[in-house]
Amino acid sequence: MGQLDNQPENSTSSNTKEIETLLSSMTQELRDIQQNIVVQLARDMARLQAEQSRLTADIQKLQNQQQQIQSRQMQGGPGRHTQQQWTKQLAQVMASQLQQELSERLKEIMVVPPPPSQSLTTVDPNIGMSSPQTVNLNENAYRLLASLDTTLNTTFKNLQQELSSYQSSLSQQLGRMHSLQQQGEVILETLVDRLIDQLQEEATNVQTTAEIVTNRRQGLPVGTAPNQGDRPQGSDPATQSDRIAAERAAMAEVRTAPPATPVASPPVESNVFLTGLILALLSSITISFQNIITRVILSPPSLFGLWEGQVLAPGAGNSLLILGMRMLFVVPLMGFILAPILYPNTWRDIKQLGNPEKRGSIWIVIGSGLFLFMSQFFIYIALGNIPTGVAITLFFIFPPVTAVLAWIMFGAKPSFIFALATVTIYLGCFLTVSGRLTGGAPDGNLGLGIGTAIASGLTFAGYVILTQLSARKLKLHPAPFSVINFSVILILAIPFVLLGSREGNLFSWNVLEENWQALWMGSVALAMTTLIGYALNNFAIPMIGAPLASVVAATGPGLTSLMALLFIGEGLGLNEWLGVLIVTLWVLGISVDNMNKQKKPAPAAPAPAKQGA
């Protein structure tokens, strides 16, 4: 306030009046813009409602015609009444023509004298014998009747063929009417969906504009509007796709790092911001505790000295068994309880993936579920063979891999800070592994644990990339996206679990009779930590934004190592603690660097929009 205090009172009063005048003019302009938008939307709504009414009337008319035709078919076949009328008219015309032709032929026969060669024995009419003329007349009448019968038979056969052709043509027309009805329903549904999307987008623009006005009235700068600078939310499709991808990656049930292209976090009040930060931290703690539970199930350390470890021996079959039992609880609870609460249109969006325009891209969602399944499978094997902190630290090699893949696929070129962070992260991983190499790994297979932890990070990078690609192509909300991912994991795990019930193969699992109760308890605990961590992260993101939530999630290596030391007494050597610290700090650095990039204005035609389309 130093410079303002030194200004004269007249200048202050003049500035206040100018600000009030500016605010009044801007408020009036915004009201005019809002009124124009409302009028335009009302016109569009009226036009679409008129089109809908017209299409509905046409469909109703076609349905009535179809019902009439079907009722005629039930009464005696299609066009029966029309056939009878045609047959009657044709018979009348033919009868009149034949009668006229027969009369003329009889007149000719009466006029022409009979030939001598055809004379027959004649007897006087008084004794009952016929004359030759009478016999010829009878023969001619028989010929005419036979010809008439043949003509009638031929005519009726032709008529029957024509009626059959008419029936076939009528059936084809009914099929076309039914197809047109279905097309009309699809068109109406598409129009309604597009109208809803347009209304939502316009409502978002109006809401953002109102927030800008509110910020100005409160003396805040314009740049504090949600998600971007002076542009309304949703104006940049590429930024909106990246926002959805960032939310999905931040809400994954495994320890996640920030996506390659998150968006700027919205400004929030201090208490809301603090609440969101606490929720994000609780989510990170919950997921770290989930890793510790997995470690206890597969290794000797006990949890708090109360729950004895080593319920299952580490191995491929036992890891798949735990994964399948965990998803057996997660999928129904997530699909029918948690996801509809977080996003009411979850199942509607899942059904819309069957539409022709989205059916070709559904493989992206299924592929991301496949990569997540492999990542979970590898991390379970790693947690059974090496300490929790070491496994999670090696798992966090995925942020650099994700950024490189994003550079290749979307053109998001990494910065110098990212290159330095990548080298440092791998140095930290080397320090962590070197501590194991010098200290040994008495509780498991060191080489298998290190290899599977790295493989888990690599496959998780593929999951993140497909998640971003899905956000660009499908625009799918994170809730239905996660339901599909978890369902894919369950579907993939079931055949391996059934195969593992037979002994003598790679995926065989073995559970002692007295350990089944502890295994079910551990599976329920894993499912609950998955759902609780997902829900907490979902509630935190609207409060602090997806980038900052990713920054909190990046504390995974250090937080997991510390919790493993406190809960199961699993300590690390000096080199290992140094490696965990280096990886944690540089993953945090990558997150903060990505978050700061999004505060800059986006280019007019970014390369990722073309390559990701």
Automatic annotation (TrEMBL):
Residues 16-72 form a coiled coil. Belongs to the EamA transporter family. SUPFAM superfamilies: Multidrug resistance efflux transporter EmrE (SSF103481). InterPro entries: EamA_dom, EmrE-like. Residues 448-591 form the EamA domain. Pfam families: EamA. The keyword Coiled coil applies. Keywords: Coiled coil, Membrane, Transmembrane, Transmembrane helix. This is EamA family transporter. The chain crosses the membrane at residues 318-342, 362-383, 389-409, 416-434, 446-466, 478-498, 518-536, 548-568, 574-592. It comes from Laspinema olomoucense D3b.
